[in-house]
Amino acid sequence: MIKELEFILSPLSCLKGFGEKTIEIYKKLLSPKRLLDGNKELKIIDLLYHKPEKILFRKEVFDLTSVQDGELITVKVKVDNYEAPSHRSQPHRIRCFNDTGFITIIYFKTFPDFIPKNFVEGGWVVISGKAERFNNELQITHPDYVNNYDIPKFEQIYPLTTGLSNRVLRRSIQIALSKLSNLPEWLDNNFLFQHQWKSWKDSLLAMHNAKNDNELSNNSPYIERLAFDELLANQIALGLMREKLKNKSDKEILINKNKNLKEYFLNKLPFELTNDQTNVINEIENDIYSNKRMMRLLQGDVGSGKTVVAFLSMLPFIENKKQVAFMVPTSILATQHYEWIKNLCDNNSNINVAILTGKIKGKKREKILNDLKDGKIDILVGTHAIFQDKVEFNNLSYVIIDEQHRFGVSQRLTLIEKGNSVDTLIMTATPIPRTLSLTIYGDMDVSSIKEKPKNRKQIITSSLNKEKFGDLINHISAKLKDGEKIYWICPLIEEAENLPATPLFQRYEEFQKFFKKEEIGFIHGKLTEDEKDKIMEDFGNINGKVKILIATTVIEVGIDVPDATIIIIESPERFGLSQMHQLRGRVGRGSKQSYCVLFYEKPTQNLIKRMNILKDSCDGFFIAEEDLKLRGSGEVLGLKQSGFSEYLIADLSSHYNLLIEASKMARHIVKNKEYLNKNEIKILLEMFGYNDCLNEAILN
Ligand code: ADP
Ligand code: MG
Q1: Is ligand 1 within 6 A of the CB of residue 453?
Q2: Of the candidates 363, 364, 385, 354, which has an alpha carbon nearest to the alpha carbon of residue 529?
Q3: Cβ-based burial of 506 (10 A; exposed 0-12, middle 13-18, buried ≥19)
Q4: Distance between CA atoms of 129 and 146, rounded to whole angstroms?
Q5: What is the chain's percent helix, strand, coil content, to nearest 5?
Q6: What is the pTM of this model?
Q7: 620 lines ligand 1 (CB under 6 A)
Q8: Cα–Cα distance between 531 and 522 in angstroms, integer?
Q9: Is 562 in the pocket of ligand 1 (CB under 6 A)?
Q10: Does residue 510 surpass a pLDDT of 80?
Q11: Is the minimum distance from the CB of 305 to ligand 1 under 6 angstroms?
Q12: Which residues have their alpha-adjacent CB atom under 5 A from ion ligand 2?
């Protein structure tokens, strides 16, 4: 490890107060973004890159008469008297005062000796909390601070998790910051000056000591600087990888050009391929049989039939006894793809298909890992669990990544690295504007599926005012009687402050008045993977009981239930156009007429415009472009809503320009070995965990 990075790359457990239990709590908070499998070690840098979400200002006051209702104050007062609760439901009341007036401190629950210890009659006490006025009496209920030495004037509020208070988190970050030394600067002085950016360390310090929300916004110079570092490191790593892939020509050529398996499956499929599907498979096969490594992006709108293309393109490898990995973003989707492939492969074809997700554990997992290593498994379908260190392939030669925008660059690359010289197919339903794809993927070959299977009827999209709730329920009931299935999409799980939308649980309660309870199911991101799989099975199976599935956008990616014919999207103002198009793509997958209902409350002009785009067009590419015009590029990529962003600070919906700049700079650096050999650049890359690609680039 580079000497300068020793501190920030040390395990978090090196800091005082970080025992095993504490680390587990921090993992819940910090790991989703930073750590791929949640098992790796948390480092000090993970703590340092945890960004505050807002700032609270605690006003230091003396004059109690000037305090407004609801104001957050810190004040020094004298204890007058303590009134113990006369009844269990009564609070403890402590009356305090200073020269300007009185204030009452209220506790509903405290530790036994807390009050006598802190509030001694006649003694001084410093308290901080939200002041309220009741009948002109000033009071603070459960102050945030009592007699602490370090009551902050500006308090940074961080995203938290159960078992961790803001005070403890904030203090641990401050402790880490106090031991931090600056790193040698990797950015050019002029460049820093142009942007009015400070050094890396000063920017981190400024972020954690921000005095107002503005300083935390995406265009604050500190946040921009930190975001740029991340983007630059990422772009350099990507550039190095790209170089490496280009230079590698040791691909093993597939000798057996037999197409028996392909013939077999083409006959077995219950449908004919569309022309586009056939063409795309040919394009892929050309690459596969050549001696050049394939890097291909397959774009195809929702429902255009990418899965079958993926499957057919695996067959040349299987004919040659090589292994294939099919990576998808969720375990529901993994299960679905796995079952579909397994069904198709039945016993006659001799193809061994396996599934690996994070929840497959113990003996079962061991067996899969062993079989994989021994080459007994031909096709491995799975989530990112596929690319943990322990997963070893025998001769991985082909990697397919579905719904790519859900994975980070480093995740994709790690999987590609597992094979010696693998061919890669990346599939996406979110069309990526050319400029963006160039920056993000570099030069990739692109295949597109533009036509939909012939048996499809256009999905009829309409908008409906929420006043017509009763009509909609009647309509749905009739459809349910005909054996059709329905998705009902809610933007929220639970009631949220300030948001007028109807949450999922409320609909679930309400629907029990109209439908049989066992026919209603719900699914959302807070369920465990097992729970999600179970409900999708109940909804997806022909014999499954659930007929109407209330869902958040967790069902947005890839799920295929051909009997589902109606999707209701509640509060369309809360979703992006591309996202709604993806959601709509959950229906219209069989031969029956399907419907999408945009169920709105307030028809603002903007909403009407957006709803019209969806009503008039079923073309994902067109919709994405319109979306791009109406919102930023980051949103179109689905990066923002997906919550799967691989960046800790950078946010492509507002740092797109920084990405372009970082990309330019990275190209320049990658081309020049003298830059790459610079200690500063090494530090930057190692800091974000990209050191492996650098080492290889320099050695090559
Ligand atoms: P996506 O491109 O969104 O991933 P899928 O691969 O899930 O689409 O395919 C959607 C549905 O269309 C599936 O039920 C699949 O079996 C079916 N399908 C795929 N290709 C064809 C075709 N050529 N004709 C009819 N149905 C097809
Ligand atoms: Mg799909």
Answers
A1: yes
A2: 385
A3: middle
A4: 9
A5: 45, 20, 40
A6: 0.64
A7: no
A8: 10
A9: yes
A10: yes
A11: yes
A12: 558
